[in-house]
Amino acid sequence: MNATQHATRNATRSATRRREAARNAAPHAVLGTGIGWRPEIAGAVERLPGLDWVEVVAENICPGHLPEELRRLRERGTPVVPHGVGLGLGGAERPDLGRLVALAELAEALQAPLVSEHIAFVRAGGGHSGRPAMEAGHLLPVPRTRDALDVLCANVRAAQAVLPVPLALENIAAFLAWPGEELTEAQFLTELVERTGVRLLVDVANLHTNHVNRGEDPAAVLDGLPLEAIAYVHVAGGFERDGLWHDSHAHPVGEPVLAVLAELCDRIAPPGVLLERDDLFPGEAELAAELDAVRAVVAGARVRA
């Protein structure tokens, strides 16, 4: 057995023990209302009233050199969830061990209750060819076929074997559907959960995006999901142009996205809801108002229930 195989085996055994302990201690972390932590709004995030938790882009954070503002949030007990964008779990190749170990180390350094990633592929090529893989620079949709689902499930299991905490996967936005798809979004996600035990990160902005761009009914998707598997929810802003919805993360969360959030909240009280903003950052007051709008939707659904 070579050094890489030893490292994989040891990481797998250690992660399995930690993951089982985490599941026994807190099977479903209740997160509350949070925001995506970004350096551009770090100061504002620290001051936001009633903020329950934050999410960080995993590839942008070094466990040994946490930004000062993020370290202070951790010290006052604010949970931090790493959100990966680079594993490419929907790709043909198994997830890179180095990327998995880095994500596991970050989860441990942040004492994260879970980590999340996307149901997407982000690179192609490489493998045994000797050439480096080509990076897409974007989250690309996985075809909803049985073969693609088999590959995704195998990659998810490989990731779960290394990660020390539960993994949640996010549905992504797309401009178009692959030809020859065999499963609906809800069927694809449900079978993924049944076969791997993975949790779901439901992005309601992406459901709205796919409604506009692909004609998919968000309510029908939600009706078909295993709601008990939801770990948390994303909301984000976007805009429509020439009949297509662009999931920009650079605009305020509009009524159509909040309406999909209300649809979800009518079915289940989500463990957590997180606001994403990645560009054209507004002032602190506007961020606080957006979080209040999210809280009002969640609270209104509870009243109706």
UniProtKB/TrEMBL annotation:
Recorded superkingdom: Bacteria
Coiled-coil positions: none
Region (Disordered): 1-25
Entries under InterPro entries matching the protein: MbnB/TglH/ChrH (IPR007801), Xyl_isomerase-like_sf (IPR036237)
Pfam families, per database record: MbnB_TglH_ChrH (PF05114)
NCBIfam families noted in UniProt: PRK05409.1 (NF003818)
Protein name: DUF692 domain-containing protein
Organism: Streptomyces luteosporeus
